[in-house]
Amino acid sequence: MIIIMKPNASQEAIQKIAGQIEGKGLQVHLSEGHEVTIVGVVGDKSRLHGINFEIADGVDKVVAVTESYKLANRKFHPDASTVPVGNTSIGPDTLTIMAGPCAVESREQLLETAHAVKKAGASFLRGGAYKPRTSPYSFQGLEEEGLKYMKEAREATGLAVICEVTSQHAIEAAVKYVDMLQIGARNMQNFELLKEAGKAGIPVLLKRGLSATIDEWLNAAEYIMSEGNEYVVLCERGIRTYETSTRNTLDISAVPVLRGKTHLPVIVDPSHATGVRAYVPPLAKCAIAAGADGLMIEVHPNPACALSDGPQSLTFGQFEQLTEDLRPYARLEGRNL
Ligand code: PEP
Ligand code: MN
After folding, report:
1. Handedness of CA 49, 52, 58, 60 (dihedral sign)
2. Domain total in the chain
3. What is the pLDDT of residues 218-229, one digit of tens each?
4. Is the pTM of this model over 0.70?
5. Contact, 99 vs 74, CB < 8 A?
6. Residue 212 maps to which CATH number?
C-alpha cells in the first residue's frame, strides 16, 4: 500500500502517518519526489485494520500495491533512482559502461585491460574472480588473489570495480576490495545469497536468471532491498529460448518493461546475451535506444587465448571503436558517455 500525500502536506502530517504505521510494527518507506511525498508501507497491512488513512490530515489518496515487490516498485518511488558507486553513479543522466575480462586471469592481463577500457571511456572495470562455470573442470577463477588485482586496478585507474560473488564467503572477501557486487544469472534466485548481498553494505548488480520472468527478477531485487540495501541495479543478459544461433536471446523489451515497473537502473550485457563478438555492437546501440542506463561488455587483451568467453570478448581496438560509435546514441538519449 502507498499513501500519496497532498502537494502541500506538512512534515508533521507525514510524520504522524509514518508513526502510526511503525507503531503497528510495519516499515515505512518515504519517497520525497519533486511534487509529492509518497509513504510506502511494507509488511502485513492487515495490522492497519481500523485506521482510515484516506481521511487523515494531508493525505491525497491511498493506493493498494498488488505486486509482491514493494521497495523495488516504481509506485513506491516514482522518480528513477540513481545508484552511487565509488566516485561514479548509475542512473538516468549517464550511460555507464562496465568493461573488462570475463575472468581475472593475471595481474598483467587485468591492469592492461583496465587502462585500455578507461582510455576508451568505461567508468567500471568488470572481472570475475569467482567463476560459476558450467563444467567443474573449467577455470574457476583466482578468488581472493583476483580481488586484490581488481583493487590494484582501481587504484591505478580510478575506475570503479565490480566482481561476481557466488557464496557468503566470496561476499565477505569481495567487500574488502571492490565497489560493487555482482550476482550472476545462475544465482538470481539463490535467496540466501541475495539476503547476504543485501547486508553487504555496497551496491549490487543483479543479473537476470537464465529463465527468469521479470516478476521473479524484481522479487529477487526485493530480497536484497528488504535487507536494507537500496542500491540495486538490474542487468538484462539474455534468456534461454529455443533459438540456438546465439548463446541466449537478448530480451530488449525487458528494458522498457522494467522502466514502468521499477525505479531501479537497468543495464544490458550484450556479450553474454549473444556469445558472439560481432553481435555486441549492434545490440549495444539497441540497448541505448531502448533506454538502458548502461552496458556491460567483455573485453580481453587477446580473446583467442581467454580462459573463458573468448568468442564474445572484444579486443581493445574493437572496444575503443565501439565506445566511439556509441557516443552519438548516448547523446540522442540525453546521456553522458
Ligand atoms: C559474467 O558476467 O561473468 C557472467 C557469468 O554472466 P552471467 O551471470 O550473466 O552468465
Ligand atoms: Mn563471461
Report:
1. positive
2. 2
3. 999 999 999 999
4. yes
5. no
6. 3.20.20.70
